[in-house]
Amino acid sequence: MIVGDIDESMALPDIGASSVVFSMAVRGLPKGSDELPFLVTATASGEPKICAETLKWTIASLSAGNANSLRKDLCVIQFFFDFCSVFTPSMTVPEEYLDYVIYAYLIWRQNGTLIHDGRSLLAPLRWRAQSALQLRREFITLGRFFWFCSATFGYMPFGHFSTATSPTSPAHDRLKNYHDLKDRDFFTHLSAAREFWAQQLGTSMLVPPIARAPSQSDRGTRTFMQEEEIWEIVRRERNPVFRALWLLAAFGGPRLSEMLNLWQIDVLPASYHLPFLGYEFNSAPLVLKANPMISRYTSSISRPECTREEFFKRHFEGRYRPRPQYLPGNPLRAGWKSMGYVNNTLKISPVYWINLDAARLFDECASEIRDFHRIHKTSRLHPWFFVNTADPGGEHRGLPTRISNVQKAWDRACRRCRLQPHHWNRTIHALRHYYKHKAQKELKIPPEFLQIMLGHRNLNSQRDYGRDSEGVHSSLVAAPQFSNAGL
């Protein structure tokens, strides 16, 4: 293969760009390819040179038969290099955060630079806001180039600088996770990149607002988290207890206090739907919300013997009592709000899952937690399901999880995803609001069924709860997004 020399016509245009794409006739190209596109960048002295990394990528792409959109792909890399030359002119980016440069690029491409005044360092690029389809294509192109350079050269070029990396870096893992997101969720995670760069640069002037971020008026009314942020938190959570809590809150809808009041007998395999609720549903585990004081479901559904409050007195000799009975400030306290029940005798109501993928992931976590209970024989100490499983010192291992520990774990989970906790409704309770929004607006659950799912006591009678429980289930299963709205 022979490539011609750079001539005078290849001078870089003075429009804020530091690179430009050219094409030339080359002998030996694969059949159907008449010209070889290549990227020319500027040296430190301003002289043009062919970018070696993109040239090798171009040749490899041609050999693989990917010639149709190659020039467009090089234009994307050109825009990206131009962006890097003004956005990070003298910054060294650690390997684990290299993908955040790509996310910053996408934010500016999404918003454009023409809307900003002359104080913006990116104003000379003169970009117009791009469509979601175009941004998706650019993201895929940059991901492919990122992987090729890491695997071939051991570093990633960013125009004026390069950083050593490998295909197994955390940055690559994040790129892979975002690759298959639904179109409506694809850009919601960019809020993390915006906050990351605002912290790194000490100012938000360099990072424009995200186009799909809530407006000032919307921020005052929206009370739920973005779905992609929730899934990102779930993906990165390794502790099975906390991962189960995030999944259950967002896709099952209980309050945090209701989850911490769950007993081990309240989290059951899917086959228990029939004896408890009267219908079969083998696709999701059964989670029961039982009144922690007066529920008569303590061991058997067929032989209700005593209330849960009485059960504590009989079996734990005053060591523990129902969590709502502890005074405020006690670490074991977890309150309980009145709710409607499907079974008024046992005072229980099920969790209605709005996402089967989330239910299955919860089931995996529940299996790990049950194994922990079995190995450590925790049922001899107390009946609760959510316990400390990762206490390094062992002092609190197997003891009931405290609300304060869950709140700290949530803050860590958000920061792990480069999200600011308690900002833009990133709270545990906002997961319940997401559950309501998803069921109401996207799954189109009727209001009377939604009230049952949330446990509100504003239907006409307890008989309605028992009669309509199967109706809630049927309405969920019939929703088009119910079975395919997962990871």
Classify the secondary structure makeup into a structural class: mainly alpha
Q: Can you tell me the residue ranges where pLDDT is under 50 for at least 5 consecutive residues?
A: 1-17, 203-207, 209-220, 458-462
Order of helices and strands: EEEHHHHEEHHHHHHEHEHEHHHHH
Described by the principal axes of the CA atoms, the overall outline is: elongated
Please name the CATH topology of the largest domain.
hpI Integrase, Chain A
Number of strands: 8
The major β-sheet equals: 3 strands, antiparallel
**Count of helix runs:** 17
Which sequence of strands runs across the widest sheet? 1-2-3
Question: What report would you give on this structure?
Answer:
With 487 residues, this protein is mainly alpha-helical. The protein folds into 2 domains: 8-213, no CATH class; 227-478, hpI Integrase, Chain A (Orthogonal Bundle), CATH 1.10.443. 43% of the residues lie in helices and 7% in strands. It contains 17 helices and 8 strands. A 3-stranded antiparallel beta sheet has the order 1-2-3. Strands 6-7-8 form a 3-stranded antiparallel beta sheet, with no helix packed on it. Helix 4 packs antiparallel against helix 5 (170-179) and helix 16 (447-454) packs across helix 17 (462-478). It is elongated, with a radius of gyration of 28 Å. The two termini are 44 Å apart. The model is unreliable at 1-17, 203-207, 209-220 and 458-462 (pLDDT under 50).
